[in-house]
Specification:
- The complex is a heterodimer of chains A (about 300) and B (about 900).
- With about 300 residues, chain A is an alpha+beta fold.
- Chain A has helices at about 35-45, 120-125, 150-155, 195-200, 205-210, 220-240, 285-310, and strands at about 20-25, 70-80, 105-110, 130, 135-140, 160, 190, 215-220, 245, 260-265.
- Chain A has a 4-stranded mixed β-sheet with strand order 8-1-10-9. Chain A has a two-stranded antiparallel sheet with strand order 2-3.
- In chain A, strand 4 (about 130) and strand 5 (about 135-140) form a beta hairpin.
- The longest helix of chain A has 27 residues, at about 285-310.
- Chain A is globular.
- In chain B, strand 26 and strand 27 form a beta hairpin.
- Chain B has about 900 residues and is an alpha/beta fold.
- Classes of the chains: A alpha+beta (about 300), B alpha/beta (about 900).
- The interface between A and B is large, with 40 and 42 residues.
Chain lengths: ~300, ~900
Amino acid sequence: MQPTGVPAGWEAYGDEKQERVGFFTDTSVCIGCKACEVACKEWNLVPEDGLVWTGESYDNTSTLGANSWRHVAFVEQRKPLHVPSEPEPGQTEDGGRGDGDALRWLMSSDVCKHCTHAACLDVCPTGSLFRTEFGTVVVQEDICNGCGYCVPACPFGVLDKRDIASDRPGSMGHKPDLPASLGTKEDGRVWKCTLCYDRLKGGHEPACAKACPTKSIQFGPLDELRERADARLAKLSDEGWNGAQLYGRDPGDGVGGFGAFFLLLDDPEVYGLPPDPVVTTKHVGAMWENMATAAAVLVVGVAAAFLGGRG
Amino acid sequence: MPSLGTSFGRGGATDFQQDLQNSDCIVIMGSNMAENHPVGFQWVMEARERGAKVIHVDPRFTRTSAMATKWVGIRAGSDIAFLGGIVNYILQNDLHFEEYVKHYTNAPVIIEDTYVDTEELDGLFAGWDPEEGKYDSSQWRYEGMETHGAAGQREEGFSPKGEQSGHGGHGGGLHHGEPPSEDPDLRHPRCVFQILKRHYQRYTPELVADTCGCSVEDFLYVAEALAQNSGRERTSAFCYAVGWTQHTVGVQYIRTAAIVQQLLGNIGRPGGGIVALRGHASIQGSTDIPTLFNILPGYLPMPHAEYYGGFDNFMAANTSPTGWWGHFKAYWVSLMKAYFGEHATEDNSWLFPRLPRIDEDNSAYWTLGQMLEGKVKGYVVAGENPVVGNANGKAHRLGLSKLDWLVVRDVVEIETASFWYDSPEIESGELKTGEIGTEVFFLPAATHTEKDGSFTNTQRLLQWHWQATEPKLDCRSELWFYFHLGRMIKQRLQDSEEERDALVKALRWEYPTHSQIQEPSAEAVLAEISGWEIGSGTFLDGYPKLRDDGSTACGCWIYSGVYKDGINQAARKRPHWEQTYVAPEWAWAWPDNRRILYNRASADPDGNPWSERKKFVWWNGEKWTGLDTPDFEETKPPDYVPPDGAEAEDAIAGDHPFVMQADGRSWLYVPQGLEDGPLPTHYEPHESPFGNTLYSQRANPRRQQNQLAEDPSNPVDGEPGAELYPYVVTTYRLTEHHTAGGMTRSVPYLAELQPAMFCEVSPELAAEAGLEHGGWATIYSARSAIEARVLVTDRIPPITVHGRTTHQVGLPYHWGSRLLSSGDSANDLMHMTLDPNVHIQEVKAATCGIRPGRRPRGKALPEFVAGIREQAHARRETAPKAEPADVRETTA
């Protein structure tokens, strides 16, 4: 396993290695406009994902998937925006903020986390999934054979196989005019956020960050984003924001930190995110050892049986 | 925007959105800014990050509320009570910005003793004519001052009203720049300040809470926040949108905010102002260079068929002796020279006698009434989807079926184009395709990426965009369509000797074209709008250069200078990080590239900044200078006193910043220009489950009603049958869609984000009406019934008004029967009773009923609607006769 915070495979780029980049999504300023979802689809030619009204607040995307690489979650809560504080004399109980019994409507734009330790990459048998020179994780659509090993490997459920368009429930059968370079496969391959690898190559920021009107989605060198996030959390904590916390910022977590991390206003599970994600291939090494031991025991046992039989 | 026009002088947002970052408090009301103006909203977020209070007052908790530091829920249709309460709070507690109010507003002006307030006449102002159902506004005048029609509108005689009074103005009679009767100490019982105080004295926090359904504490929170964040050192801003305009008292909603902002001294200053958020990319542009029936470019009035003897009378009636409207003739003649070139001469009165005339209100809803009577032959619809976007879609579809021909220009085949084979009335059998005589032409339009042009946005900013790709197939730009249409008409009429064709023959119609499809040059049009000197061909650098002798041509005087030096100023794209935050070199704003209007008010009467923190434009001893183009004559000193007999801008004193007004002051009290009163007063919506807290006059007496059988009203509070339509209903937009949906329901990436029509209801209403989250509901009014999916949410809570709890039903209005995402149209439920000033429908507050399940299909639908309507009618018939609450109301 690589040292904490350094993605596997990235160092191998040598001179071609670029600064590791990522997203810091600050949900405290997300207005839920979904421009990120649309910009992503426009740039990356991602098909429409079915016209299904869910009744889950204003979220009709529901989840990340092969056809939704950004997903804005909407959480309606009866919870004040700020932590109730001791009122000063003459103030109301909410410390004069006037949001004592306020509603909260949390919005958060989710995306592939571009994990430092990415299980999807570990399990990909074709080499379609690879670590880029920017430290991000990308599927190469011309190599992916649709085996799907990566799908259960992702602790966030990001990786997903694209159905045959016309078979999808609720689909209008819309497919964008795909360029020939994407191949002619009717699909069945795995698709996810590339952190706009092609745009990065051209020196541009990813489409979602570019489209975000309130700088909720910030793109940049990961180290810098982490610093920015720490300062932001400190400010919000000072201001008494209820539940403000960073998610995926810590290189010591179960996936070695996210390349795309978040500032949330409640616990991750409130947004449908796993509270304590662990790289699913973490125990593969140990599993091989155990298996080898088991195999050895088996061999010895079998041999003993034969030997015993003769005796 | 006659509300801002009459209050301040120009019908446009007084501030620009980037400047909201400097606000200490932002009140968003009548607007869902985060959802409908997400890009501009970044500056509200910036202000919040800098510590500003962001307050959202709205019936619903929206994405804007979620970002606000405070949300106050109120009943739809009660905003004047809320804002009037703030006015009263300011006045009762002496929190007004005294120096600003005394010098810059008309607070000291004494009003004629003919004026009587609603407080004395139980909800009517002086001058009410019950026979005509109208006011005689001459009873609202300044004392001792002759009322001339300032430049303005002429729908019905000489008093400026409606969009035509997109600017203020008043007659002559100033004495050294002041109206003859003033009390500088604001104590005279008939001075505006005291009238204001009496008018709002009953708007106590308790009355506000009882009327609006909010708590006293929440109301006081807003009032205090505004007062604490205004003054020399601090400024507060208001942002509003159609949540205020789409009411039968919509103009007066905005007027109330204008009063609050004048009292607090927040106009013309950084971080202050009233930001009128416009709902389309160029809606501001479409009133500046109007698609309206009653004005010509630059808010010049469309002549009326009856009220003018001739050109000289027209000039006399429209030219204000004082203020910038003193140059009315220069604006007018320059427009005629742009239209008709050498054909418009002094000798033929610049072709005035041949100009088309209006003869009635002639607005869209009036035209629909004529259509329903079979009096309209043809109709051209461009960039609109009236059967979805306008109130009472069914009446519109029935109207269209009585035309001879209909032209629809749009990017997709919208519901207005398909009414004859795909509509609710075809489904119900009320219309039959084979029996409709209307010939429908659908002409595909080019999108904004397929043409050059400019958008004039919310903050009066003209921003140029370039064509990225050729339009496909038969798609053509609007410019192409109207240019070639005009060209072909002129061609056909070139040999005509008919008198009626003379004007068309006289039209200048010379625009260079390019590309295979002969696209006219949009820049050539912009150059004509900006204007030139005819002799030399020199491009004008602004409207002060316009002349009334026919030596200048200008297509829209307020836009003059946008093609200064022969350069497309609207195409400038220098980013704000390379200049000041005001970014004067990004695009071009009317007038004269000013970003904050009336910015002379950012300095005190002596010309010094009110404070270092709010420094913007000031007098440096020789001239006005600062961060913006001063909205004042550059070298007019602060102590300038106009000599007697001074005219136009020379009659405006050096300490009066509102240079478009005849008296240079902003108007707390509007003596002339509004149909429904000089001061805003709380009336209930046309349809409301509640009576008026203040007066027995229930709704706006001057609201514009109609007698159309296709537009029945629900019974209202106190009337038998009202209980069949017990809930308040309000319509709105979502981020994911654009207005009537033509541009978004057809786009997969947007359609999937909000794929179905739904209604928002509280858990309490769901329980009361038996609605199930995720299920279906049928919502009905006297007009129609629609179905929608049910979204049960805490975000639209029940309200308690006059001790009675009721519910509000929220309906997005984007859907129609076609395109990728289809659904019933919310506007089918709405009535066509209008604001009298601007003829806008009241779709933000009406009444409805709601039941679980899908609506009836086929002919069962009209039967269902009629069944409830007749039941209500029967209850009214059999009820004991009582004096109706609004007995004095007459139909306009």
